[in-house]
Amino acid sequence: MIDLRIGVFVCCCGINIGAYVDVPAVVEYAKTLPGVVYAEENIYACSNDGLNKIKEAIKKHKLNRVVVASCTPRTHEPLFQAALEEAGVNKYLFEMANIRDQCSWVHMKEPKKATEKAKDLIRMAVAKTTLLEPGDEPEIEIKPSTLVIGGGVSGMRAALSLADQGFDVIIVEREPQLGGKMRNFDSLFPHQQKASEILESLLQKIQTNPRIRVMTGGKIKSVFGFLGNFTIDVETRTGTESLNVGTIIVAVGADILKPKGLYLYGEDKRVITQSELEEILRAGSVDANRIVMIQCVGSRSAERPYCSRICCNEAVKNAINLTQQDKEVYILYRDLQAYGITYSRLEQEAKRNGVRFLKYQQEKPPKVTAETDGLKINLYSPTVNEDVELKADLLVLSTPLIPVTDAKELSQMLKVPLDRNGFFMEAHVKLRPLDFATDGIYVCGTAHSPKDVGESVTQALGVASRAAIPMAKKRVRTAAIMSEVDQTRCSGCGTCIDVCAYNAIRKNEKGLAETIAAICKGCGVCGATCPEKAITMHHFTDEQIEAQGLAALMEE
Amino acid sequence: MSVFEPNLVGFLCNWCSYAGADLAGVSRIQYPTNLRVIKVMCSGRIEPSMVLELLEAGADGVMVTGCHIGDCHYISGNLHTKRKYALLQRLLAKTGLEPQRIKLEWNSAAEGQRFADLVREFTDQVRVIGPNPIKAPNPEQRILLNIRAAKEAADGFRLRALVGKEEKLTTEGNVYGEKVAQEDFNEVMEQAVETEFQIHRIQLMLRERPRSVKEIAKKLGLDTRLILTYMVALRQRGWVDIRDAVEGTPLYAAQ
Amino acid sequence: MIECFRHPNITIHTQSEISKFEGSVEDFDVKILKYPRSVDEKKCTGCGLCSDKCPVKNPSVFQAELETRKAIYIAFPQAVPQVATIDREICLWFTNSECRICEKICPMKAVDFEQKPKELKLNVSSVILATGFELYNPKEIGEYGYGRYKNVLTSLEFERLVCASGPTGGVLNRLSDGHIAKNIAFVQCVGSRTHTKGYPYCSASCCMYATKEAVLIREHEPSSHVSIFYIDLRTFGKGYQGFVDLAKSHWGVKYIRGRPGEIREDPLTKNLIIHYEDTEKGRVERLEAEVVVLCTAAIPHRDNKKLAQILGTRLDEFGFFDVIDPILNPVETNIKGIYVCGSCHGPRDIPESIAEAGAAAAKAAVDTIRLTVEVKS
After folding, report:
1. What number is the average pLDDT over the span A347-375?
2. pLDDT confidence of residue C100
3. Which is it for strands A6-11 and A36-42: parallel, antiparallel or unpaired?
4. CA atoms within 13 A on the CB side of A291
5. Beta-carbon neighbour count of residue B24 at 10 Å?
6. pTM for the whole thing?
7. Which domains does chain A have, with CATH numbers?
8. Do C316 and A463 count as a contact with CB atoms less than 8 A apart?
9. B135 near A CB under 8 A
């Protein structure tokens, strides 16, 4: 029986916890828990000062286990674990109590109950901590190669950057050729560069790069593995090939909404989308003198509660083009998204060129009626507080980017989430915009959310740097959270093998089950299944879970 | 008179439901304070006996949450959660405890509001049915026996093997590739649950003291011939044996 | 900040700037001038005793000058490194050869009045500029009363007031009388999107941070009223529109489309009267608020000119760093091997800045790899 010396550190997180939970009382309570020899309060446990205090306390009070009661472990657990290791304590002898995201922040009107709950959560964490064991992390090799799913501008740019950094890249593109949506564009803002020229230069670089392999007409059939060692089956015209890479980048782009049923689209030939206008402009000029554009068609609505970022600027860019051809252009908008310096300039250029901007309100959208000599558009203009009527030869609808049709299927194969609007969901919206929560898989470009070409390229370069991190390190340690089969209790029934999704448990020479540590993800399904109860789930053992549960129900 | 505040325990999977609960926090969505959360890596880690043990310890309600079907971070973990939860429901029904004391929900990392709503719903749901009868000052011995038996049955080889193989047998098939129809499987499972439940009830009673078949039949309200078949099964497993005879009636005792 | 500090491959030089710059990509010779903090970084433990005893005060830049700090001070509670600095412009020893209490009191004997500026020489393969931005001072917009009316604040000042580690510990005590403000108005585009006093461009993040502040107020104080005066609601980022929808429907934040013409102070209550045209209703109205927050333009850092001269990098007409190709090379300047990320080349939000940081790192990494390959052969 080891001598338990648990230290409990309760964070105030400024006022985030401190204003709702009685932290001093919680600290005093923690001191009474079995196994706890030290407890203290910290204003920001995650700060350099806070971490130093923890390390000092470990040394001074000879702590051999630590509980930190603060925010969600999903934010700072690695930071605290690193501090523990620096102070000589194995990082698995650590547990967190979430007294912020799942306590103070959600019980702001009930501070007394929040305090009681915080005490309970700490009691539960301490109960588990008394049963924790040190963990040994297996090392995995990282293959220095990347699969880029999607051969649009983002995928190509990411591939080039990775190849420059010395890694091998395979681009799998669904269509028969690379280029993505760029192939449909005419000119790009802000400087009206020709999309085709830019695409050509990228394609040239891709084709001549010895490190990049392109598979067009390819469809992802299955994905197995984990960071450093993914196996992906790709089906092309010639058959199915199995690829083996270290990292995966999702750059599948987005589709453009065709607004059937809105503003006579699909019913009247004179109503087109912004991208259809691009095609026409690419081929030549447009056969219309008066053009009206409507923004936010099918976006910033209940059905699609997001702004598609680029449509205002695309409309403005096209409007400038049209006014230079002596056309009359009206843009009907709700909020013009001409953000930053470049787009503010573009907006001003449009105004100088005579493009007319008319605001409309979401509750009172424009009404379009077809007449023989043109389209009649009626809208209420809040600026002049009057109903306005416009006549147009051509009505251009600015529609949002929407997730690609196979996004759901791909997300399920990769085991990565989609957000509420169907775009790929990153690990953290601010601090990890290019990572997925799953190690080794990253996202960039419009697959993440609508953005322009320059922003997509920025993300593509950014994602190349993210993927390069594990590949440059060559070896990475994986968590010690994994299963272990008691060879004396296993009866060789093989049920664990049936339920393991990773083939991480196999039968050894004796016909008994054995875990392959490097592949095991620690989910616990085998442990929950084993009929003989022969499998221990390290760091989430039956006893630890039981201890937490019983501690939850204990009266103080 | 104070309102009954349920003591609830929730198992949340790290990748979806725990993140969803965090999102509720980040969004400052308020919800009742009754739930105590235990984080696991996957909802598939949860065994029926874990839930039953908490109910035995006095929890008024236990919730299990995981990723939506098709979105499990560990690919198929939640499919097994679903199977195990169905078994848990069968066992709970045997105990006499209200079925509303347990809940299985899928909640994604993007569903903060939904998580808050789930907690509110579950709290209201359990508040209505009242405190766990086990916590009463003089709890019904029958319920205590039942829940213990259910827990031990859930930990036993037979039910674990059955539920462990269910997903594969009903979707992929056995080693010969023969798929088992879900209704057929349900029939087998129903019978197995009944048998294991009764067998464990008997074993628990015998652990207290040796008893006769007649006594057990009376206590459990079951036919003596049925008890006898269970007793044979118990003997085969080596769990009980005949101890004595009292006035010609054999007494069975736990081994 | 802490991850950087603890990373074995990262060395942090604070109080430093580039004084000389020569060479080309993969082989830049950089001279760095490190200003003396008059405290030995290796000895100081950040205990703060020196600040406690120091007799001299000065407005704290970190607290948006709403609070003072001492001549010897640590910038803020989470500062990295957690080491004190002496402001030689107000320190009694440096100005008047008096005092030196901090030196006597310091338990680690870390104070060093003799510290001189140091020159460091580095040879690097690439440079990443991440010098950030500043905020426009709205004093020149006389009609908004900033600088005259105590309860008209900039957004940064407001941010400090609501922050737990701020001068009021997060309580919204307004500056004129300490009264806890419940009725607050935000004015967007102050010094942005204008051809008179200010800059013609949009500062990208203000609509969203005003919404964030508004929601913060509403959740802290259920009886509060918050209004945001805007021209175009810039909700272009991921999750932004959803957040604004929530602010409107769930938190009851009022959005008024109209640029206030004038803000006047009630001489008795010190409340502000905002005169504006509600362009959606087409009426001229007035709103009374206890505190007005001006969301000011994000402007180039004042040191950009000097730095650009030393490095040879181009600035745009406003003074932000310029990139050569915003489409295919969005983080590279006109000098090969010098990259930019974040607000130093124009206003942008955090996710964009983080993506750019990764992009700049990817470009810089290639420069080092080429070097390694050449050295090998």
Report:
1. 95
2. 93
3. parallel
4. 29
5. 25
6. 0.77
7. 6-135 (3.40.50), 145-255+402-476 (3.50.50.60), 260-399 (3.50.50.60), 483-538 (3.30.70.20)
8. no
9. no
